[in-house]
Structure formats: C-alpha cells, structure tokens
C-alpha cells in the first residue's frame, strides 16, 4: 500500500465517516438526516448567492490552512493562526481607514500591512522557540488570547470607545460590484484570486527555492541541518513569520473584502482553529489545503442554511468537522484497516491462482 | 476605601474565580505528568458547565440546596466519559495529541450548543435558581482581619479546590500510583520495562483530568455565570493550562498560580470599584495570565520544564 494512496484515502474515508456519524447524530436527535444534508447542499450550491457566499467563506480558510500547513511542513505547530489572523485583520482595517492612497495601491498596502502584523505576531513564538527552546504550541495559544484582548482594546481606542473601527475607504476595498452583481449581491470579493496566488506562492517557496528547502530540512532534522551549515534558529523564526504572514493575509481578506472594518469580539472567529482541520485534511500540501478549505468553507457556509431550511442547529456542521479531524488524526487505524483489506485481497488472489 | 477594605473585598472574589481554575489545572497536571498534552481541557470545562446547568435546571425542585453539588458530581462523570474520546484518539490510536485536543474543544462547544438549542429552543439556558451558597466558617471567621478575608462568606467549592490540590500532591508524590503516572510521563519505555502498563496509566490520567475539568466547568457555571451559553467558558480552560505551566507541573504550584490568575480575572471584573486598580487599563489585567505564562516558559520567571515524554504517543518496541 503506497503512502500516496493512503494520503488520499485517509481523508476521503474520514470525510465519509464524519458525515455518517453526523447523520446518526441528526437521526438520534429527532431530525431527518436526508433533509439536513439536502439543506446543507442547498446552502452550498443552491443558487448563485449561496455559491458566492460559499466562495467568500472559503477565502480566509485557504489562508488559515496555508499558515498551519506551512508551519507543519517546517516542523512546527502553529495554533496561533487565530491570533495572527485577527492581528492582520486589525492592521488591514486600520490602514484601510487611516491612510489616503490611490485606489489599488491602498489595498495592496493594507494587505501587506496585514501580512506584516501576522508575521510579527508569529515572530515572538518563533524567536522563543529558536533562542530559548520554548515549545511553540503553548506560546501560540497564549498569544491568541493576548491578541483577542489587545485587538478589542485597540478597536475601542480607534473608535473612541465604540464597537467597531470606522469603515475603510473605497480605495482600499477588494470587494467588487461586478462579482456581487453576478451572484445575486453576495459578498464575494477579489480575495479568491489572492488566495489562489497564495497557494501557488507557498508551493513555490517550499518546492522551488533554496529557502524552502532549508526550512523543510530544519523541520525534518535540526541537527543534520546545522551540520550541513544551515542557520537553524534563523530558519525557525523565518518559518513562523511566513506562517503568520499567511494568517495575517486571511485577516486582510475579512477586513478589505467582506466586512470593511473590524468589530469587538467576545470569542474567537474560529477560522484559525478550522485552519488546523484544513491543513490536516490537505496533508499540508498547498493544493491539498485548497481542497480542504473548499470542503470546510463549503460545509461552514452551507451549514448556515440548515436552521432555516431543516430546523437543525448549524452546530451540527462543527460536530462533523471535529469528527473528521479526529478520524484524520487517528489515520493510523484507518491505515491499518486499509492494509488489512489489501492483504486479504492479495491472499485471496494467490489462493485463486493456486487453484 | 482603605487598603484593608479592598483586601476584604478582593480576596474572596479572587478565590471564587480561582477555584474552577485550580481544579482544572490539577487535571492538567495529571495528564501532562503522564505524558499526554490535554489542550482539550477547555472543551471538557464546556461540557461540565453545560451538563451541570441542564441538571440544575431539571432537578432544582427535587434536590433543593443540594442541587449544585449533585450537579458537580454529574459533571464529573460526564467530563470523565467525554475525555475518553481524547484518550482513545491520543493514547490508543496515536493521534497527534494537540490536534485531538483542538478537535475535542470544537466538538465540546458544538455538542453543548447544539443540545442547548435542542432542549431549550434558544441559544442559551435560563438562569439557575440553586447556586452554590456561601457560609461562614465557625470560630475561624471570628479571627480579626484574616477572618473576614478568608473565612467569611466562603464558597464550599473554594474549600473543595484547595482539598483537591493537596490530595493531588499526595497522590502524585506519595503513592505508587503517582510514581507510575510520573514515570510514564518521563520515560515510558523504562516504565514499560519495569512492568508498568503505560497505556492503562495514561488512560487513568486522562480520565482524572476529564473528571476534574468537568468539575471545574460545573463550578464556573453554577457559582459565577448561573446559566449556559456558547461564551460561558471563554478561555478558562486555557488559563488553567497556563496555571499548570506557571506552577511548573506541580499541584501546589498550580494551586498558587491559579489563585494568582483568579485574582487577575476578578480584578478585571470588579476592579472598576477599587482605587489604583481602576486606573490600570482593563486589557492589562486580561492579558496578564498569558503574558506571565510566556515569560515563565521563556525562563524569565523561573524555568518551567515539561515532563520529558509529554506530547509523544508511546509505541511499544519503538526506540
């Protein structure tokens, strides 16, 4: 059984298992799973408005997934995507309303500011990991909460105690009347092009550049990399910063494309944590991440149709996503089952041939 | 307000906020000492909070003032069962512990809110009528100054939290079971060679954390918020993890750290009525526990070192 085959089969089997368990949950709580999944389908592809909103939901998921996947590929676990994303969101919203720049350039500057903000927020755990060997998981979790409270305080300060920042200038918007009009006035924006570019950029960095090779090498074996003359701590910091920059870009999409501002938050957006699911499902490959983001973004947006169309609370979608993560993470058991099936088949074949 | 008045006001409130953190942090000490990272404590607290509120609302008429305490037990059992998901994934199926913990958090919140909507047909429950009650400890509450700070209007849950911390210290450091937990967390292969059942011990440790996390959530819901909604538990599980690290993976250290973080939490809520504290920006108090934890991990506030095998699944026969 090739590992490539497993890398494809485990996510597919996990998705199916997740949906089956989701159906069982619905059935056992008195709902009709068929109605539920039809409502979900309708919510994803039902009409052009839903399709537009689905694509819009997918955009930040791509960035969150890329951020987690990039860190994974370089040997690190970045749970701090959530915090880096909202820092990027804040930075883009701030540049969007506080600066006056020509149309187009303004959006580019705001997007870059978000990448820098996300990167800086990830720089701290990177630095601590590189210089003091502090494990990045706990630090990034703590950084998430610090980001949440700092961002809320900043929003208050920027709006004189209000609940959200002033709206960004039109020159910084990446929303589009054209895209909106062809999708029955959904909030679809140009961010999907930026997302596809980001996928290609991550692939390019990791597969085609010397830096990417070093980043992967350090993640794979620190000591060997050091022996080969690579600067280990510089590479660790750079990996985290690039990962954080991807996350920050996801925040920029929300600021410049969807909302045009940032509001005070009582809880996390959840996009950063879903990014872990996206990366896991996409086997940490850039194009896999794109597929994972399409699936989870689709599920999330389609789920919003479930309460009105089938009377089912949309938390069922999160339950399914969480289950899919469990199944993918426990891939070992699926792998075991797959190889057993393959062995049985092979055994039967030889028995037949002997006859 | 004199300084003493402030202390009399803030200390009981700090202990109240600290007690769920203490108990959950102790749960974290148990799993991490056995080599399993439990990021899912937040989710376990959510489940504990949810189930205790549902129980409280359903049985308050029959059980009267005992309701919150029975609710605590129910939350303990449900938390324990819920943590088995993590145990199966992370210990038996060798799933990445951090990933399964994150998934557990997502699952817990989704299940709790889904069920809330199912049972009450709205996003949050009603407020409970039977909360934890306060009482004065006889004799001790008559001590001048200290009596009023520590022994008047005490919540039973605060006493429970301190008892749990001391008990945990005893179990971890004075019993064979505790030695086994620590040994599978430091060097599972050596423990296995000596005949310690690594998988079984790790299951026990995760279940203990599930039980304690469930209690922590139940205390928070039944003593502080009084109802359940999606944002009832908002980071308390992670503050508990922070307290565990700041307390250097030691039950009594975790107790101290959780008391301190409880103080920060309560200051951020009641601080507006206290001189000096009033002038500190709210955000500073909010982020204090997290900043201190990062500083502790970095070694600026005493070096915090995790159990050696923490976070790694144990695979028999693998070097």
UniProtKB/TrEMBL annotation, chain B:
It comes from the Bacteria. Keywords: Cell membrane, Membrane, Transmembrane, Transmembrane helix. It is found in: Cell membrane. The keyword Membrane applies. CDD domains: TM_PBP1_transp_TpRbsC_like (cd06580). It is a multi-pass membrane protein. Its main location: membrane. The chain crosses the membrane at residues 6-29, 36-57, 69-90, 102-120, 154-173, 203-222, 283-302. This is ABC transporter permease. It comes from Kurthia gibsonii.
């Amino acid at each position: 059984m090739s590992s490539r085959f497993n890398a494809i089969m485990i996510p597919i089997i996990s998705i199916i298992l997740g949906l089956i368990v989701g159906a069982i949950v619905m059935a056992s709580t008195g709902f009709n799973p068929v109605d539920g999944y039809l409502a979900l389908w309708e919510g994803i592809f039902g009409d052009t408005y839903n399709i537009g909103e689905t694509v819009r939901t997918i955009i930040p998921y791509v960035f969150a997934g890329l951020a987690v996947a990039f860190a994974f590929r370089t040997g690190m676990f970045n749970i701090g995507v959530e915090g880096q994303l909202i820092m990027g969101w804040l930075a883009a919203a701030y540049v969007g309303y506080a600066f006056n720049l020509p149309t187009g350039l303004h959006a580019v500057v705001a997007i870059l500011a978000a990448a820098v903000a996300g990167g800086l927020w990830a720089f701290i755990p990177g630095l601590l990991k590189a210089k003091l060997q502090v494990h990045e998981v706990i630090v990034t979790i703590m950084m998430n909460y610090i980001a949440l409270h700092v961002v809320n305080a900043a929003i208050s300060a920027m709006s004189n105690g209000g609940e959200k920042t002033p709206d960004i200038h039109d020159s910084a918007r990446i929303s589009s009347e054209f895209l909106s009009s062809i999708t029955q006035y959904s909030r679809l924006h140009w961010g999907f092009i930026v997302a596809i570019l980001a996928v290609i950029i991550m692939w390019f960095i990791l597969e085609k550049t010397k830096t990417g090779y070093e980043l992967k090498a350090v993640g794979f074996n620190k000591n060997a990399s050091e022996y080969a003359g690579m600067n280990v701590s510089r590479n660790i910091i750079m990996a985290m910063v690039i990962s954080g920059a991807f996350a920050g870009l996801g925040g920029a999409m929300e600021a410049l494309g969807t909302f045009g501002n940032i509001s005070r938050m009582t809880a996390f957006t959840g996009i950063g944590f879903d990014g872990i699911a996206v990366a896991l499902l996409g086997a940490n490959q850039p194009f896999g991440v794109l597929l994972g983001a399409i699936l989870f973004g689709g599920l999330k947006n389609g789920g919003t149709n479930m309460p009105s169309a089938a009377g089912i609370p949309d938390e069922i979608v999160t339950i399914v996503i969480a289950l899919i993560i469990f199944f993918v993470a426990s891939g070992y058991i699926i792998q075991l089952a797959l190889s057993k099936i393959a062995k049985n088949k092979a055994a039967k074949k030889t028995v037949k041939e002997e006859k | 307000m004199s300084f003493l008045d402030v202390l009399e006001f803030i200390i009981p409130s700090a202990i109240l906020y600290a007690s769920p953190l203490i108990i959950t942090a102790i749960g974290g000490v148990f799993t991490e000492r056995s080599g399993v990272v439990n990021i899912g404590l937040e989710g376990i607290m959510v489940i504990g909070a949810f189930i205790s509120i549902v129980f409280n609302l359903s049985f308050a008429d029959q059980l009267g003032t005992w309701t919150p305490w029975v609710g605590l037990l129910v939350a303990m059992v449900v938390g324990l069962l819920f943590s088995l998901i993590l145990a199966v994934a992370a210990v038996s199926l060798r799933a990445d512990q951090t990933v399964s913990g994150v998934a557990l958090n997502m699952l817990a919140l989704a299940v709790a809110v889904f069920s809330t909507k199912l049972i009450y047909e709205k996003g949050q429950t009603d407020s409970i009528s039977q909360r934890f009650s306060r009482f004065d400890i006889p004799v001790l509450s008559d001590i001048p100054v200290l009596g009023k700070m520590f022994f008047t209007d005490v919540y039973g849950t605060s006493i429970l939290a301190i008892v749990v911390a001391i008990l945990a210290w005893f179990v971890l450091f004075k019993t064979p079971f505790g030695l086994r937990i620590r040994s599978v967390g430091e060097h599972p292969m050596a423990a296995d060679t000596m005949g310690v059942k690594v998988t079984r011990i790790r299951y026990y440790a995760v279940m203990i954390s599930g039980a304690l996390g469930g209690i922590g959530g139940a205390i928070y819901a039944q003593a502080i918020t009084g109802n359940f909604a999606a944002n009832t538990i908002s980071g308390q599980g992670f503050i508990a993890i922070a307290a565990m690290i700041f307390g250097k993976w030691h039950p009594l250290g975790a107790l101290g750290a959780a008391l301190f973080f409880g103080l920060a939490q309560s200051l951020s809520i009641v601080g507006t009525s206290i001189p000096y504290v009033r002038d500190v920006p709210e955000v500073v108090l909010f982020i204090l526990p997290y900043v201190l934890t990062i500083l502790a991990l970095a070694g600026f506030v005493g070096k915090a070192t995790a159990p050696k095998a923490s976070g790694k699944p144990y695979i028999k026969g693998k070097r």
